[in-house]
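--- STAGE predict ---
source: upstream dedup step, 1 unique chain passed
mode: sequence only
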Amino acid sequence: MLPAVVLLSGCGLDISGDEDTATQSSVTAEPTVQIAGAAVKGVIQQGLVVANRLIADKDGIYAPQRQAAKPVLTADDGSYEWQLRGKAEGWALVELTADGGTRMICDVVPQCDQAGGAAVAFGQSMPLDSNFSLRGAGDLRMETVNLTPLTHLAVTLAERSGDGLSPVAISNAYTTVETWFGLPAGALRLTPPDLTNLDEMTGVSADAIQVAIANAAFLALVNDNAQWDSISDVLADVSSQVSADGQISVMGDGTNVALADLVSAAALQSSELQNAVDSSVISQRLAVVEHRNVQRFKTIADVNEESNADVADSGDTTDGTTGGDETAGTDSGSTTDTSTDTSTDTSTDTSTGSTDEQVAGTTEPDTSGDSTSGGDTTTDTTTDTTTDETVADTGTDTETSEPVTETTPEETAPANTALLSWTAPLTRENGDSLAMGEIAGFEVVYGTSAENLDQSLAIGDASVDELLVDELTEGTWYFAIRTLDTDGNRSRLSEVVYKQI
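--- STAGE serialize ---
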């Protein structure tokens, strides 16, 4: 009873039906796109898969172009193939349903409980009820489209859009769901690994594992709550919340599934899986994922306590969170406190002026005549390293903000990671106030050279104030952060800090 990942790969191939092959060869075949992939989260066997193009009507409302077609079944390894008429262009909706012959591999540790039946051990197959379904959508020109509980929620959220399942609505909904679960930008496009076979996947990233565990949490709730008989029940509850309000309960009311419940279950599964794998590499990455989920749970709890919020943000403030590719010409002019936290207590505070340094490939900010420009950014930087190295004080005098509070993770982060923390700005560079509701998120940029910060991670949640960057190779890594506002404006980068790995 766990989610599937369905991969879409597009290429122009001929399709053969029931007609004689020789007869078909004498005519020009209609262009088709082959949709091929696997249901692998845990592996879904004999699942029914259908794909349909998303087409806009005369009013610009997008909906699936339903065609009479027999579903294809996933194989024992979760793989399937589907032929979709037409060229490899546009977007498609992919749907997986179950019948009496559909089964799934349990990837919840230590077991998957079943209502009215014996528990199924981790790694063993179990039946899926006929109410189970998953949906996902994506651009046919891309290589993959995943089907998981998270993509299912994203499609449900996108359906609330005034223009239906349009590419824009789907993209925005994917970003919103990533924000809810504290996932990095683009995470729902990653292929989650099979959690029952992690020892054979030492090359899998912590981000991909985090996505897989976030999806596993939906079934893990069945084990811990008598009110849920199956993952279908959990999905139906969360989907109904999203469909009705465009939101999901944050802390819960004892009746509905809550975001905090799912994140907590993901943290627990990350911990349990560390004892189930033999690979030290995978165990280390699971520790990273556990820490991320613990921090996300704390953020959810803190935000709920401060605002008494009952629902997660529907995502209206996520514009401009994808980094430097959109609206790169202006500044949000924010003041950001940043720090990197590792394993020792050597620290130094630095205050610096704003810098013009940008992510590689983006334009310089345009500050002339803009209401968001004109002030200095302030960075109170605390850097802990294992080699007693600190960031040198530049001695630059600027306006100051409330010092950042150094935090120590409950679990020791792996040696090849850097924990960044910051304080959200309260003012723009020109001195105007900046409300939390005006902050869309943050962008962390980093690299092995302070002059070439060529990697970036977008955070589409203004309440997040920490990020664990993992899988860093040996050497010195440099980090900086900028703030993104809801109008798509970006601040200048903060002072660069570094860590020796």
